[in-house]
Write a structure and sequence with these properties.
This protein folds into three domains: 141 residues, Response regulator (Rossmann fold, 3-Layer(aba) Sandwich); 173 residues, 3-Layer(aba) Sandwich (Rossmann fold); 139 residues, Helicase, Ruva Protein, domain 3, CATH 1.10.8. 48% of the residues lie in helices and 13% in strands.
Length: 466
C-alpha cells in the first residue's frame, strides 16, 4: 500500500435504484475504482441513508416511487451536505428532467442503459470534486475558527452586539479603534475584521507600540535606510510597507510617543511613508486598525495624545466588553478552551465539576478572556483523573475555606439572571450551542436531548450560522 493510498480513504458512494439487480451491477462496477458502495431501493431509504452517513457521491435513478424522486433525493443531499456530488440516471424520456437536475446542482446525468466505463469515469471525477469541495470547506472553517466571526465565541447580548457590529465594519476600509480592557482579545477581533474584508488575501501585520522605544518604533513602522543610525547596517522594510495592500494593527496605540504620532498622522492623511534617514516618499495602501486599553479622550485632554490623530483613528470604534460584563459566556469559553488544550496535550477530559464551575463563575476576572484561557490550560495540564475539579484550579480561583458550599438555588438564580434581557432566539441559540457541546457535536443525540427533530436542529444550526 502506498503512502497516498493510506492517506486517501476510498470514495463513499450511495447507489439508489428501485431495481435491485441494476443497483447491484452499478455498485459492483463502481467498486472497481476502489469505492465503498451502499445500495438502497427507495427515496425514503435514500433520505434516511443521507442522514446517517456522509457520502462523497450519490448515484440515483430519477424515477423511483414517483416521477421526480431523484430530484427530491438531490435536494435532500444538497441541504444536508453541499459537498456531496449527485449523478442522476435517466431513461431517454426523462432528459428534460435530467437537465433540470443539473440546474439544481447535479454533477452529471447518464442515460440508461448505462455505459459502465463512462459511469466509472464520471463517478471518479465526482468523487474528486466532492473531496476538493469538502477540503476547501474544512480550510475555511479552520480559518473561521481562528479568525472568522464564528471564532468570536459568545452568546451573551453584549457579544452578539459586537459580532453584529463586526459584520458591518469588516467589509469597509474604515480605520477602526478597538477599545477594551487588557485580555479582552483585541488582536483576535482585529484579525477577524481583516479576515472578513476584501484584504484577507493580503498581509495582516501586528505591532505593539508600548513595547518599543521611540527610535525603534519609528524604524519598525516606516523602515530605515543603511546608515540612518548606528546599528542600521542595511536597508529595512517597515511594517507599513510589509502590510501594503493588507491591514496593519497597532496595539496599545495610546502609548505611542508624540513625535511618532505626528508621523503616523501624515501617513493617514496622504498615504505615504518615509523611511528613517531617507527623503524619498513611498506610497502605501494599508487599512489601519488600532487598539488601546487607555482612555484616549483623557489622554487628549492631558495633551498626551494628539486630538487630530485620535479622530483619524476612531472613524469607527469597537468596544469589547469585559468578561465580567459577559459572564453568561464563561461556560462556553471554558468548554472551548478545555477542548483546545486537551487536544494540545493529548489528554482526555470528561467534564468540569459544578463546584469548579461555580468558582469560575464567581471570579471577578481582572485578566478577562486571556486569564480564563490560561486557567483552562493550567487545569488541563495538572488534571490526573479526567474530571476538572476544584483541586485542579489555580490558587487564585479557590475561595476561602467554607465558601464553596453547594448553594444550588443561588447558582440557579444566578444562571437565570444571565438569561434575563435576551431574546427567545438568543436563548434558543445558547441552549442549542450548549447541547451540541455536551454531546460532542452529535446532532442526533443533541436533537433527542432538545426534544426536536434532527432536521429541525440542522435547520436551526444553519439559521444561526453555527
Amino acid at each position: 500500500m502506498t503512502e497516498n493510498e493510506m492517506l486517501e480513504p476510498p470514495f463513499q458512494i450511495l447507489v439508489v435504484d428501485d431495481e435491485e439487480s441494476h443497483a447491484e451491477v452499478v455498485a459492483a462496477s463502481l467498486e472497481k475504482i476502489g469505492a465503498e458502495c451502499a445500495t438502497v431501493l427507495s427515496e425514503k431509504e435514500a433520505k434516511a441513508a443521507i442522514h446517517k452517513k456522509y457520502y462523497d457521491v450519490i448515484v440515483t435513478d430519477l424515477k423511483l416511487e414517483r416521477e421526480n424522486s431523484g430530484l427530491e433525493i438531490l435536494k435532500e443531499a444538497k441541504q444536508f451536505s453541499e459537498e456531496t456530488e449527485v449523478i442522476v440516471m435517466t431513461a431517454h424520456g426523462s432528459i428534460e428532467i435530467a437537465v433540470e437536475a443539473m440546474r439544481q446542482g447535479a454533477f452529471n446525468y447518464l442515460q440508461k442503459p448505462l455505459d459502465l466505463k463512462q459511469l466509472r469515469t464520471i463517478a471518479e471525477k465526482a468523487g474528486e470534486s466532492s473531496r476538493i469541495r469538502r477540503l476547501n470547506l474544512e480550510l475555511r472553517q479552520r480559518l473561521d475558527e481562528k479568525f472568522g466571526f464564528n471564532g468570536v465565541i459568545g452568546n451573551s447580548p453584549a457579544m452578539l452586539q459586537v459580532i453584529e457590529r463586526l459584520k458591518r465594519i469588516a467589509p469597509t476600509d474604515a480605520t477602526v479603534l478597538i477599545q477594551g480592557e487588557t485580555g479582552t482579545g483585541k488582536e483576535l477581533f482585529a484579525q477577524s475584521i481583516h479576515q472578513n474584508s476584501s484584504r484577507k488575501n493580503r498581509p495582516f501585520v501586528a505591532l505593539n507600540c508600548a513595547a518599543l522605544s521611540e527610535n525603534i518604533l519609528e524604524s519598525e513602522l516606516f523602515g530605515h535606510i543603511k546608515g540612518a543610525f548606528t546599528d542600521a547596517s542595511a536597508d529595512r522594510v517597515g511594517k507599513f510597507e510589509y502590510a501594503n495592500g493588507g491591514t496593519l494593527f497597532l496595539d496599545e496605540v495610546g502609548d505611542m510617543p508624540m513625535a511618532t504620532q505626528i508621523k503616523l498622522l501624515r501617513v493617514l492623511e496622504n498615504g505615504e511613508i518615509t523611511r528613517v534617514g531617507s527623503n524619498e516618499t513611498i506610497k502605501v495602501n494599508v487599512r489601519l486598525l488600532s487598539a488601546t486599553n487607555r482612555n484616549l479622550e483623557e489622554a487628549v485632554e492631558s495633551k498626551a495624545f494628539r486630538q487630530d490623530l485620535y479622530h483619524r483613528l476612531k472613524v469607527v470604534t469597537l468596544r469589547l466588553p469585559s468578561l465580567r460584563e459577559r459572564s453568561a459566556d464563561i461556560p462556553i469559553l471554558l468548554d472551548h478552551f478545555i477542548k483546545t488544550f486537551a487536544k494540545k496535550y493529548g489528554k482526555t477530559i470528561n467534564g468540569v465539576s459544578q463546584a469548579a464551575r461555580r468558582c469560575l463563575l464567581r471570579f471577578d476576572w481582572p485578566g478577562n478572556v486571556r486569564q480564563l484561557r490560561n486557567a483552562a490550560e493550567s487545569m488541563v495540564v495538572v488534571d490526573i483523573d479526567q474530571l476538572l475539579d476544584v483541586d485542579d484550579l489555580p490558587e487564585e480561583f479557590i475561595p476561602e475555606s467554607g465558601t464553596t458550599g453547594n448553594d444550588d438555588i443561588a447558582e440557579g438564580e444566578a444562571s437565570l439572571r444571565t438569561l434575563v434581557g435576551q431574546t427567545l432566539e438568543e436563548i434558543e441559540r445558547l441552549f442549542i450551542t450548549e447541547t451540541l457541546q455536551a454531546t460532542g457535536g452529535n446532532r442526533e443525540e443533541a436533537a433527542k436531548k432538545l426534544n426536536i427533530g434532527e432536521r429541525t436542529l440542522y435547520r436551526k444550526i444553519k439559521e444561526y450560522g453555527m
